[in-house]
Design brief:
Elements lengths: L1 H8 L5 E5 L8 E4 L2 H11 L3 E2 L2 E2 L6
Antiparallel strand pairs: 1-2, 3-4
Length: 59
């Protein structure tokens, strides 16, 4: 869920947008500051969530 996604990423910084499109196995997280996104990418790449590993990319 979007709330669950927020719980994983909010520790990196202020989030402006979170979306999980219907019928998709992906989600989008947008941070206020670039350095927060950089930290999230560096620390969460490959992190296991719900039997899958997170793959993070710049959007």
């Amino acid at each position: 869920s979007e709330d669950e996604l927020r719980s994983y990423f909010q520790s990196f910084g202020e989030i402006t947008y979170i979306k999980i499109p219907p019928s998709k196995s992906c989600g989008f997280v947008q941070f206020v500051h670039r350095h927060a996104a950089e930290m999230a990418i560096n620390q969460m790449q490959g992190y296991p969530i719900d039997n899958s590993r997170v793959r993070l990319f710049w959007g």
